[in-house]
Design a protein that fits this description.
Blueprint: H1 2-12, E1 23-26, H2 38-61, E2 67-70, H3 71-77, E3 85-86, E4 100-103, E5 109-112, H4 117-127, H5 133-140, H6 145-154, E6 159-161, H7 165-170, H8 172-177, E7 183-189, E8 207-211, H9 216-225, E9 230-235, H10 245-249, E10 253-257, H11 263-273, E11 278-281, H12 295-301, E12 306-311, H13 326-332, H14 335-338, H15 352-375, E13 378-384, H16 385-393, H17 400-404, H18 412-415, E14 419-424, E15 427-432, E16 437-438
Parallel strand pairs: 1-2, 8-9, 8-11, 9-10, 11-12, 12-13
Antiparallel strand pairs: 2-16, 3-15, 4-5, 5-6, 7-13, 14-15
Helix pairs in contact: 1-2, 2-3, 2-15, 4-6, 9-15, 15-16
């Protein structure tokens, strides 16, 4: 099953299947207690990044590499934040106390995403509750599910009425969006080929601007840093952020603040773009275009750029500009309903939609860089959380008896071989290392994680 899923990804990118024996995926599903084939999804998409890195290595050296990944390690990578420790402290927690499932009027459920304070405040404001979870839970019960979902989004928040799979299949957005692939790789402008020089790693000398937030987009840029790319994360000092999660996704990156509302900030970004190779962004559709940084704008500034974009719901359908997160897509699309326990919806044990998209975006970026080297052009790599969730679902399901026998969690002994420790600005950081293996250029991060805005907005020498 993982090899079939890998072949699906390679066909999506028009890549030939590797020679027999050059890709090894060990282990099997289930890794954790879920009917979804998370081990298969994780191993396939991470192995795909290895194949793409090997292709770039072949362009530099004429040699391809052997690629290997273990399903359990890949599944751990889909929850790497769980293993982050700072200065020997306990593993970090992920969700805000207000985020979660709440009852609505007919006894069904809605998921409220409150990890950002402004999203939490919007939900509280709509239902008229104080900043108290019990009061919020009582207030949501006077609302219909779809009614509350729409009102919170209209107020600038983020919520999802928990639908069944059948309900989602009939939803206008699911119908409009259902044929979109996990990934699009599209040539958007002409430019001369840019051959890759001989270098020590597959992405040595490649510069990546990372204008993404939360998990999927930052994972993409982190995966590119695994293979030697210089990644500069750009954010704004006053924007809501993800706390310690930024350290986990910040492995291998520089980090700088720019305010794109200001002319100086926009001009600085244009200067960075002129010598960049990849421009990755995960803001809501239209947000950066309004500042002059649509994919077409970016390709005009830097011919030969690879633009990577992520949206929540895809570019087609009535929800195409709606905000969303992994948890929101799980809830709206039926996945949380499938996972329900004792009548209450549940989230997956891993943030699979985010990570599938993050690694798929990195895979797409590397494929586009190889195409640029061979034929030239500026490229658009386009992904969405909705398509990522659908791709996971398409891997098939495990039967209830098999799932019941699966472990609830990986043990400390399971995870220990994959952990690394690094000295960073915030102290000693223990973290999950890259789980992909390449025979000639072992993936690693050359830079420790830093606080947001730690560096000036310039490229390294």
């Amino acid at each position: 099953m993982p090899y079939a899923s890998l072949r699906d990804l390679l066909r999506l990118a028009d890549l030939r299947e590797p020679e027999a024996g050059t890709v090894e995926i060990t282990g099997g599903d289930p890794v954790l207690r879920t009917p979804y084939r998370m081990g298969t999804a994780a191993a396939a998409v991470i192995a795909a990044t290895g194949v793409a890195a090997s292709d770039l290595w072949a362009l530099r050296t004429g040699r391809r590499q052997r690629v290997s990944v273990d399903m359990r390690a890949a599944t751990a990578a889909f929850r790497s934040f769980k293993y982050l420790q700072v200065n020997g402290g306990p593993p970090t927690e992920g969700m805000d106390v207000f985020s979660g499932f709440y009852r609505v009027r007919d006894g069904r459920w809605i998921f409220l995403h409150c990890n950002f304070a402004h999203h939490r405040d919007a939900a509280l404001r709509v239902v008229g509750a104080p900043a108290d979870r019990d009061a919020l839970a009582k207030a949501t019960q006077s609302w219909g599910g779809e009614e509350l979902e729409g009102a919170i989004h209209a107020a600038g928040g983020c919520a999802a009425f928990v639908r069944t799979e059948a309900e989602w299949d009939r939803h206008p957005h699911a119908i409009a969006n259902g044929a979109l692939p996990l990934l699009d790789i599209i040539k958007i402008a002409d430019s001369p080929p840019e051959p890759l020089p001989v270098a020590s790693r597959p992405l040595s000398g490649i510069r990546v601007l990372d204008l993404t937030r939360v998990l999927a987009g930052p994972t993409c840029a982190r995966a590119l840093a695994e293979h030697g790319a210089d990644v500069l994360k750009i954010t704004r000092a006053d924007l809501a952020h993800s706390g310690l999660l930024e350290l986990d996704t910040g492995q291998g990156k520089l980090s700088a603040h720019l305010d794109l509302r200001e002319a100086d900030g926009r001009e600085t970004l244009r200067g960075l773009l002129r010598s960049a190779d990849v421009f990755s962004q995960a803001y809501r559709p239209g947000t950066l275009a309004a500042r002059g940084f649509s994919p077409e704008d970016v390709a005009a500034i830097r011919p030969g750029i690879v633009c990577v974009t992520l949206s929540a719901w895809g570019h087609a359908g009535p929800w195409s500009t709606r905000r969303g997160f992994d948890t929101i897509v799980q809830s709206a699309s039926g996945m949380a309903d499938v996972m329900a326990k004792d009548g209450k919806p549940q989230l997956q044990p891993v943030s699979a939609i985010d990570y599938v998209n993050g690694y798929a975006m990195a895979f797409g970026a590397m494929v586009a860089l190889a195409r640029r080297a061979r034929e030239g052009g500026s490229w658009l790599v386009r992904a969405s959380l909705a398509s990522g969730g659908r791709w996971i679902n398409q891997r098939g399901r495990l039967d209830a008896e098999t799932v019941a026998k699966a472990p609830a969690d990986l043990t400390a002994d399971d995870v220990r071989p994959w952990l690394r420790e690094v000295a960073a600005a915030d102290g000693r950081i223990a973290h999950l290392g890259p789980v992909l293996s390449l025979s000639e250029t072992p993936p690693h991060w050359a830079r420790p994680p830093v606080p947001l805005g730690y560096h000036p907005p310039i490229w390294p020498a």
